[in-house]
């Protein structure tokens, strides 16, 4: 016993005091930080979306009116910029925990209970080192604790100073089962205390049973593992932008056999063309699972109507939906119209009409990662594309000779497609990966007069760079 | 990795660096939170809020003082923010000696017990005691931080000491009785 200034006592004892917080705290911090990041990124995505919409609008305006389109676009973009330049308030709402008075009470109950157990033990087998006993206690099973408590309750009942405590203890006794968990929790707080005071540390190290040390180590290891795991995750999410150039073989075909050129040709044999598409893609990986992508592709599609005969004598346009300048001819369906054919037509070898149309495709697609293993990644893609007509051609082929034709009059200058597909990625380095993506794109409102429903199937391959 | 590099990477919001800063300093800052808060639960909440503020305001750290000191100030401020509004009734100041001396079996006192006693103090007593005794702030600084007068700070401190003394003595008495 010594006389001591109360300030000094606290200062000395608590000087180098450290404690290990519950790993859940870090998890929560991380979630809050990530949430913010996501909010910011979502904002960037909205902005990009806005720019894309402006571009689309620009194209639309450009292709429709072709008058002062640039001014339109600029105005839209400035508007967007104006909006964006406003400071954006990101409000963080930290979840406020409701403190339940119970938990506090429980804590203190446990503390006092522990104390009394300690004392009981002391009485039963007096040893000078209190610390050893305290740590031994952690080995006691609930029954033992209960037993000790029973003894203690009796004892305390006899001592008038401790009447207040008895209440706690009885409460503890009755609900010993349910409190077990909280005892363990309570213990971990104390086990978590790190004593830096060299003397204490020494005795602590000596007396702490192996299990406790292991538990501490385990806790720390756990935290480290969690942190390490999350780092890996983060690294993946860090690379969120992906640019790629890709090329695809396209196979176009149509769902119905109806001809887009002329209803007369509805029964004629048709064949979809094989062509290429190439373009650039920009993708944004919003989370581990979700990716948004857009880009610009040049697409060429077509259809050949086979084995028809053209009558070049008439001055009518050959088909209902075309303007073909090089002929002033009409046609009759070779295969269908056998009876009405004149000699001239009979002498004519079959001709093919190839219609080709090209688009500038701007896809807006969402990708969802289904599988991810080692360097491979399998994703589902869904979305739509805006198609802006850039090429419209009709060619007539006879005995392997190509005549330049004219153009179709019923092609819409703007139409859309609904896209589905999968994407298979192979990551051969940290930033680079290769992908192959079979996609089917169903076109809508390609023609304004025909029931012809074209679609195209493409296998897109590309080299991607993520950053 | 040096602290400066870590701080720089935290400024760029690199998750890896943030995790490392947490790992390096969480124990010390958690201890601070335990001393300034009412219980473990609130200490964890304050640690959480403190670290969020640290990572959000890290660009304001000018590497003049120690990074640890800067973080500690933020954590302390976070807890003050929470409890500052809590008005403690100001009793008429009694004459309490500045130095309170007590007879104590020092060996027998566990850190967790002292911590518990501090946590049980009324909010403002606890804050003032922590700031003045454990973290070396002056009464003038405390007065500013807690929006109170210097006199109030002094009387709060005295009352905190008295309460702690009572607790320690009761505890001692109990120990004696049990043996």
Largest sheet, strands/sense/barrel of chain A? 8 strands, antiparallel, barrel
Estimate the mean pLDDT confidence of chain B.
86
Unreliable stretches of chain A: 66-176, 182-208, 232-236, 327-347
Q: How much strand content do the residues of chain A show?
A: 25-35%
Structural class of chain A: alpha+beta
Provide structural commentary.
Chain A has 467 residues and is of the alpha+beta class. Chain A has 11 helices and 16 strands. Chain A has helices at residues 6-14, 23-64, 69-85, 101-124, 130-137, 142-158, 163-174, 176-192, 198-207, 210-238, 343-347; strands at residues 2-5, 18-19, 193-194, 241-254, 269-272, 274-285, 290-311, 322-323, 330-332, 351-373, 376-398, 401-404, 407-408, 414-427, 432-444, 454-466. An 8-stranded antiparallel barrel of chain A has the order 4-6-7-10-11-14-15-16. In chain A, helix 2 (23-64) packs antiparallel against helix 3 (69-85). The two termini of chain A are 66 Å apart. Chain B is mainly α. Chain B has 2 domains: 3-85, RNA polymerase sigma factor, region 2, helix turn helix motif (Rna Polymerase Sigma Factor, Chain: A, Orthogonal Bundle), CATH 1.10.1740; 90-177, Arc Repressor Mutant, subunit A (Orthogonal Bundle). Chain B contains 8 helices and 1 strand; from the N terminus they run ααααβαααα. Chain B is globular and about 60 Å long. The termini of chain B are far apart. The model of chain B has no long low-confidence stretch (mean pLDDT 86). Strand 1 (2-5) of chain A pairs antiparallel with strand 1 of chain B.
């Amino acid at each position: 016993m010594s006389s001591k200034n109360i300030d000094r006592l606290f200062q000395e004892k608590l000087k180098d005091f450290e404690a290990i917080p519950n790993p859940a705290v870090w998890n929560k911090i991380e979630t809050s930080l990530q949430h913010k990041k996501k909010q910011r990124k979502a904002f960037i995505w909205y902005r990009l979306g806005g720019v894309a919409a402006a571009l689309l609008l620009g194209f639309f305006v450009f292709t429709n009116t072709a008058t002062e389109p640039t001014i339109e676009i600029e105005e839209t973009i400035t508007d967007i910029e104006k909006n964006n330049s406003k400071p954006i308030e990101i409000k963080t709402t930290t979840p406020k925990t409701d403190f339940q008075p119970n938990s506090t009470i429980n804590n203190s109950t446990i503390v006092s209970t522990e104390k009394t157990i300690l004392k009981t033990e002391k009485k039963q087998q007096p040893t000078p080192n209190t610390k050893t006993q305290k740590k031994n206690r952690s080995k006691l099973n609930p029954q033992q604790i209960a037993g000790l408590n029973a003894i203690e309750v009796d004892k305390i009942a006899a001592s008038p100073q401790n009447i207040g405590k008895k209440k706690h203890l009885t409460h503890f006794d009755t609900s010993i089962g349910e409190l077990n968990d909280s005892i363990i929790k309570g213990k971990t707080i104390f086990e978590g205390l790190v004593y830096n005071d060299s003397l204490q540390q020494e005795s602590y190290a000596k007396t702490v049973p192996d299990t406790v040390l292991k538990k501490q180590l385990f806790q720390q290891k756990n935290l480290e593992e969690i942190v390490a795991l999350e780092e890996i995750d983060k690294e993946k999410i860090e690379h969120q932008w992906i640019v790629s150039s890709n090329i695809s073989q396209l196979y176009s075909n149509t769902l119905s056999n109806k001809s887009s050129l002329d209803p007369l040709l509805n029964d004629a044999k048709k064949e979809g063309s094989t062509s290429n598409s190439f373009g650039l893609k920009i993708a944004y990986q919003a989370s581990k699972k979700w990716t948004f992508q857009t880009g610009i592709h040049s697409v060429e599609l077509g259809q050949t109507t086979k084995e028809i005969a053209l009558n070049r004598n008439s001055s009518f346009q050959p088909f209902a939906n075309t303007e073909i300048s090089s002929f002033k001819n009409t046609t009759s369906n070779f295969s269908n119209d056998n009876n009405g054919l004149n000699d001239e037509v009979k002498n004519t070898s079959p001709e093919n009409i190839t219609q080709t149309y090209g688009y500038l495709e701007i896809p807006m697609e969402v990708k969802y990662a289904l599988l991810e293993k080692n360097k491979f990644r399998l994703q589902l893609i869904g979305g739509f594309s805006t198609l802006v007509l850039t090429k419209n051609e009709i060619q007539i082929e006879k005995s392997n000779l190509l005549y330049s034709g004219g153009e179709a009059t019923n092609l819409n200058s703007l139409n859309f497609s609904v896209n589905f597909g999968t994407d298979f990625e192979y990551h051969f380095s940290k930033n680079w990966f290769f992908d192959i993506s079979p996609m089917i794109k169903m076109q809508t409102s390609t023609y304004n007069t025909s029931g012809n429903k074209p679609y195209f199937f493409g296998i897109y391959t590309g080299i991607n760079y993520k950053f | 990795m040096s602290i400066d590099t870590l701080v720089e990477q935290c400024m760029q919001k690199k998750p890896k660096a943030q995790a490392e800063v947490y790992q390096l300093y969480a124990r010390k800052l958690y201890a601070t939170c335990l001393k300034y808060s009412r219980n473990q639960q609130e200490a964890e909440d304050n640690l959480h809020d403190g670290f969020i503020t640290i990572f959000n305001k890290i660009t304001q750290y000018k590497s003049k003082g120690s990074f640890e000191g800067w973080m500690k100030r933020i954590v302390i401020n976070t807890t003050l923010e929470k409890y500052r509004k809590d008005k403690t009734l100001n009793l008429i100041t009694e004459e309490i000696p500045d130095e309170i001396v007590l007879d104590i079996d020092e060996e027998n006192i566990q850190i967790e017990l002292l911590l518990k006693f501090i946590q049980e103090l009324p909010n403002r007593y606890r804050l003032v005691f922590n700031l003045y005794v454990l973290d070396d702030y002056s009464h003038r600084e405390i007065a500013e931080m807690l929006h109170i007068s210097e006199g109030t700070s002094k009387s709060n401190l005295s009352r905190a000491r008295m309460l702690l003394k009572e607790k320690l003595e009761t505890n001692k008495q109990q120990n004696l009785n049990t043996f």
